[in-house]
């Protein structure tokens, strides 16, 4: 976890451990663990307050660096939302990674989710505009998958800004690889400056990673974790629970 956050948590822990008397029946040790638990949950921002609005198209922009699991979670989320009764469409606007569109189509095919994309087109914001026009108001939710890598980071962030303008999303979901740990804070902060992040998805939590980066991403963007990815299969997605997550983090 980012060292600034560790210091902040340690400071709060010290302050409360010294200042608070354990409630009757709770040992000092258990009280300290409880305080740590509370402080971590607080940094995670609790349960997300975002909900999809009925009767209109909700546009969701998927952000994150290449390899974070963005396309996979887009397909997983499309299936989950479809199962929850939302008519869902996907726009494949990763015009940078070869094969990204085919991968997205293959994953979404089995759940009968339509993917709009333009093979060979490099203007991602234009693909987003045409994709949104293509679906019109036929969907409850449209997920927009974006590129995660460019020749340089500045170029990627600039493209995200232009895509953000083209999509005018109701929600920008930042996808974070649960295994990357303390690099999360800077990454989340950089994305948040280009398109305001409204929610976080942490992937690859089936590995030995505990996902401490999620706390950093929450702190950097002021938004809550909404979903987690727990494997490579299409159904390996869960709605986030901060209680379970902090429990796992503390072991
Ligand atoms: P993108 O570049 O951000 O779109 O990333 P991809 O969706 O292509 O995923 C990158 C790699 O991570 C692929 O090999 C995925 O199968 C894998 N992956 C994605 N999500 C998970 C997950 O929750 N658990 C595991 N173990 N692997 C995942």
UniProtKB/TrEMBL annotation:
Annotated source species = Cenarchaeum symbiosum (strain A)
Its recorded name reads: Signal recognition particle GTPase
Give the source's domain of life in one word.
Archaea
Ranges where the SRP54-type proteins GTP-binding domain occurs: 57-251
Q: Name one GO cellular component term.
A: signal recognition particle
Ranges where the AAA+ ATPase domain occurs: 56-232
Gene Ontology MF terms: 7S RNA binding; GTP binding; GTPase activity
Which keywords appear in this protein's UniProt record, sorted alphabetically? Cytoplasm, GTP-binding, Nucleotide-binding
GO biological process assignments: SRP-dependent cotranslational protein targeting to membrane
